[in-house]
Design a protein that fits this description.
single chain; alpha/beta; TIM Barrel; 8-stranded parallel β-barrel; 10 helices; 32% helix; globular
């Protein structure tokens, strides 16, 4: 372990007394653990930010499916506070593949919950109509949002897919019988044109209709009460109005987010002022609406910049009093020598990442105690 972390001894202590916080969570029947997580995330965002990594427990640089391992833990001694997983394997595959994926995911979600960490879920949904990919493919893909909405030709099929998600949500029970809360982030980067649900292939009305149905069906019909719902476009917006163009309404969203790789060094291009401006829009809107906010995806592939963590990312996050619950960097592929977004032992940004880790502003899993209770402290 490379860290000599001596920070955050009781830096924050939160006691949630009835009426002390204005509850804005959309699911009034949410489990008490999910409600506590929501409020604790809101409180954390005032002074700190949680660090997250996609697929951190499932695989990393040169390895896969090893118990209690993550590249971040190998570097710092702690798992990320937020672990990203994906529901992409729940449809469009064989029954055997779905069962295998589900079993691995269930084990990791429960383990994260029992350790006191947080799970966020993206959803690279295989196109229910063309069944070719979650990406838009010009030769085979079908504009499916109009087909899966209520009254559409594939609506019943879509309901079956949502049932698999609900079944999973009901299955992630800890040893004490409580359900693991999850931040569910469907249809991300919808303002781009690379996914079949993208703006180019979907009307505003159809997108909103599908989003509203998805949330309502999961919580009101299928009884899923351990989800926090996150809304996250990519970076095409430049104003509140742009950001809210496809917003489904305050009754259908818990968290406002954005995915931003382009401003953080992709292709050697940095636009720090643009990143700050957009995050400020998201943060201000969340404060105004009493929602959560997050930088739901970011990162610099291969991390060639040795001081990216402190000189780029941390500087952006500490600017303009931006209030974000967490930041999540993308995955470390197990086989590719270059496709990684978090450091691993020996990677050139490790010394700077440890500085990032030791900064009082950032929180990792080992810093959290009681994130699912009404009385939370930071170690």
């Amino acid at each position: 372990m490379n860290s000599t972390r001596n920070k955050k001894n009781a830096l924050l202590f939160i006691s949630m007394i009835a009426g002390h916080f204005l509850f804005a969570q959309i699911d009034k029947k949410a489990t008490k653990e999910t409600k506590a997580l929501y409020e604790n995330l809101k409180a954390i965002s005032k002074k700190h930010i949680l660090f997250g990594h996609q697929h951190a427990l499932e695989y990393g640089h040169g390895w896969s499916n090893e118990p209690n391992r993550s590249d971040v833990k190998s570097v710092t001694g702690s798992h990320p506070a937020v672990i990203g997983v994906d529901f992409s394997g729940f449809s469009g595959r064989s029954k055997e593949e779905i069962e295998k994926t589900t079993a691995i995911l269930k084990k990791n979600v429960i383990a994260t919950y029992e350790r006191g960490g947080i799970t966020t879920v993206s959803w690279h949904l295989i196109n229910p109509a063309s069944e070719d990919s979650f990406y838009w493919k010009d030769s085979t893909s079908i504009a499916a949002m109009s087909l899966i909405k209520k009254g559409g030709s594939h609506h019943e099929k879509y309901k079956e897919i949502l049932k698999t998600i609900a079944d999973f949500a009901h299955s992630v029970k800890a040893k004490n019988g409580t359900l693991a809360p999850m931040i569910f982030r469907p249809y991300h980067e919808f303002d781009g044109d690379w996914f079949w649900w993208g703006k180019k292939f979907t009307s505003r009305e159809d997108f909103i209709a599908v989003w509203q149905f998805t949330v309502s069906y999961l919580k009101d019909t299928l009884g899923v009460h351990n989800f926090i719902y996150a809304f996250s476009p990519d970076v095409t917006f430049n104003s509140e109005d742009n950001y809210l163009e496809r917003y489904p309404g305050d009754d259908f969203v818990d968290m406002l987010g954005m995915d931003d790789y382009g401003d953080f060094g992709r292709d050697g291009k940095y636009d720090i002022s643009s990143a700050v401006k957009k995050l400020k829009i998201v943060s201000d809107l969340a404060i105004k609406k009493n929602k959560l906010a997050a930088l739901t995806e970011t990162g610099l592939e291969s991390i060639p910049n040795e001081t990216w963590w402190t000189e780029i990312l941390l500087k952006v996050l500490k600017t303009e009093n931006i209030e974000l619950a967490y930041i999540l960097v993308w995955r470390n592929d197990s086989k590719s020598p270059t496709h990684f977004y978090a450091p691993f032992p020996g990677q050139i940004s490790v010394p700077d990442f440890i500085k990032f880790y030791n900064d009082l502003f950032t929180l990792f899993e080992n810093d959290l105690k009681g994130i699912y209770t009404r009385k939370m402290s930071l170690k």
